[in-house]
């Protein structure tokens, strides 16, 4: 495997940020293909929101499709990222295996956590609409805190698909508290990458989500290794 063959002692000790971008560099075409697969299934929901003039029934079906499908596909993305971070080549078999292993666990463990996040965002939007400044401030702070351990949900589930939503949540909080500096660094890096993706649009479709997932996976792996030493 070229990634492992080219990795020397210095590469093994490199920071998670450089490790993630090295994986992207070595397998960019494969990771772009996986990212496009994920993005294509997000597109129906995006189109339904972008075109309010479409029939309500059609828009409802498109949104439901995206909401249901994107969770197992996100789990698949984390599974593929774990494979890539270990130095293995990403291909059809790894995508298929990640989807087979993580589809149901994602619906069981990630979906409830994502629903809590969505409820918080909806509550924030309603509070802002009704000009409830105190509630907006409170929910903004809560959502920002919530998203810090949230970046470890996917990597932890990919490592052990048997976990429940609560065990994933507990593990992510524990990992974030164990390494607050690295966790904040990962949070800022992922945020910067997502901002670039939103601005560029094309980056969001082609590579940005998989880069964010790889960053989270590499930071989570680094944190787990440091705890076992």
TrEMBL record:
The chain crosses the membrane at residues 31-51, 63-85, 106-127, 133-153, 184-215. The keyword Transmembrane applies. Keywords: Membrane, Transmembrane, Transmembrane helix. This is Putative membrane protein. It comes from Microlunatus parietis. The lineage of its organism: Bacteria, Bacillati, Actinomycetota, Actinomycetes, Propionibacteriales.
């Amino acid at each position: 495997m070229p990634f492992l063959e080219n990795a020397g002692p210095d590469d093994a000790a490199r920071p998670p940020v450089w490790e993630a971008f090295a994986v992207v560099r070595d397998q960019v075409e494969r990771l772009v293909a996986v990212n496009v697969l994920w993005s294509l299934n997000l597109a129906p929901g995006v189109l339904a929101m972008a075109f309010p003039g479409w029939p309500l029934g059609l828009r409802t079906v498109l949104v439901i499709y995206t909401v249901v499908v994107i969770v197992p596909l996100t789990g698949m993305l984390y599974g593929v990222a774990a494979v890539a971070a270990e130095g293995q080549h990403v291909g059809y078999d790894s995508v298929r295996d990640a989807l087979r292993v993580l589809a149901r666990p994602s619906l069981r463990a990630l979906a409830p956590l994502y629903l809590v996040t969505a409820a918080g965002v909806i509550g924030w939007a309603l509070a802002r609409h009704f000009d409830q400044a105190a509630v907006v401030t409170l929910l903004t702070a809560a959502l920002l805190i919530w998203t810090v351990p949230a970046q470890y949900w996917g990597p932890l589930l990919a490592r052990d698909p048997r976990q429940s939503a609560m065990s994933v949540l507990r593990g992510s909080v524990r990992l974030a508290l164990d390494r607050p500096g690295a966790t904040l660094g990962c949070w800022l890096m992922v945020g910067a990458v997502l901002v670039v993706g939103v601005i560029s649009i094309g980056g969001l479709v082609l590579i940005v989500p998989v880069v964010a997932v790889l960053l989270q996976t590499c930071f989570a792996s680094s944190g787990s290794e440091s705890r076992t030493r």
